[in-house]
UniProtKB/TrEMBL annotation:
Name of the coding gene: alkB
Listed Pfam families: 2OG-FeII_Oxy_2 (PF13532)
Top-rank taxon, per record: Bacteria
Cofactor: Fe(2+)
Domain Fe2OG dioxygenase: 114-214
EC number of the protein: 1.14.11.33
Record-linked NCBIfam families: PRK15401.1 (NF011930)
Organism for this UniProt entry: Chromobacterium haemolyticum
Keywords on record: Dioxygenase, Iron, Metal-binding, Oxidoreductase
The UniProt record lists the keyword Coiled coil: no
Protein name: DNA oxidative demethylase AlkB
InterPro entries (alphabetical): Alkb, AlkB-like, AlkB-like_sf, Oxoglu/Fe-dep_dioxygenase_dom
GO molecular function, one term: broad specificity oxidative DNA demethylase activity
Length: 214
């Protein structure tokens, strides 16, 4: 039941539920420019493995840009104004990335989204993200905007309780997934990324999630 964008926009919007939409191939036409912005952030604030509060190593390598970055260690999950790796503020959120996130949110039904944090997750083959809710943000009124680049992944999109069976959504290079409103607290995760070779990113998946942290 996909609503169609104008074809020249290079994508189509699939409404998944009242608060969630998948914007297929939304960033394919600007992928190289977006990746250049991301690579500049990765040089300034290198991604690193984080520890869960329970002491387990996460398989993704994570960094951030924007006013706040998401960090996890023995003290818990939280947003921090500085990169604990360098002690410096996080790199600024690049202009194209920010504009893209705002536009995608509006297209999905969330006008006025003003992200102040962008997490960048780097997945090597085999890396995954366990089922969780995003609840470290101060205000759940803002949506989450997730941009996928590189190798495809299976995204688990569950319900509002952990017990609810999660649906599986393939996220491919260029896809943008937006969830908010009644769907904001849905459990979600990523299955282990299968090995492969992407023409632009090589053996990697990079996921950007834009949030309003404060
Ligand atoms: C992803 N990441 O990397 C999805 N949520 O595709 C997340 O859902 C996420 O990386 C909360 C905190 C950190 C994350
Ligand atoms: Fe999440």
């Amino acid at each position: 039941m996909a609503d169609l964008f104008a074809p020249e926009e290079g994508g189509w919007l699939e409404r998944l539920s009242p608060g969630a939409a998948l914007l297929h191939r939304r960033v394919c036409e600007i992928d190289a420019a977006l990746l250049a912005e991301v690579e500049a952030v990765l040089r300034q604030a290198p991604p690193r493995g984080m520890q869960t509060p329970g002491g387990r190593a996460m398989s993704v390598a994570t960094t951030s840009c924007g006013a706040y970055g998401w960090v996890s260690d023995a003290r818990g999950y939280r947003y921090a104004e500085r990169d604990p790796g360098s002690g410096q503020p996080w790199p600024a959120m690049p202009a194209l990335s920010r504009a893209l996130a705002e536009e995608a949110a509006a297209e999905a039904g969330f006008p006025g989204f003003a992200p102040d944090a962008c997490l960048i997750n780097c997945y090597a083959p085999g890396a995954k993200m366990s089922l969780h809710q995003d609840k470290d943000e101060r205000d759940f009124g803002a949506p989450i905007v997730s941009v996928s680049l590189g190798l495809p992944a299976i995204f688990l999109f569950g319900g509002l309780s952990r017990a609810e069976r999660a649906g599986r959504i393939e996220l491919r290079h260029g896809d943008v997934l937006v969830w908010g409103g009644a769907d904001r607290m849905r459990f979600h995760g990523v299955l282990p990324v299968a090995d492969g070779m992407h023409p632009l990113l090589g053996r990697r998946r990079i996921n950007l999630t834009f949030r309003k942290a404060r």
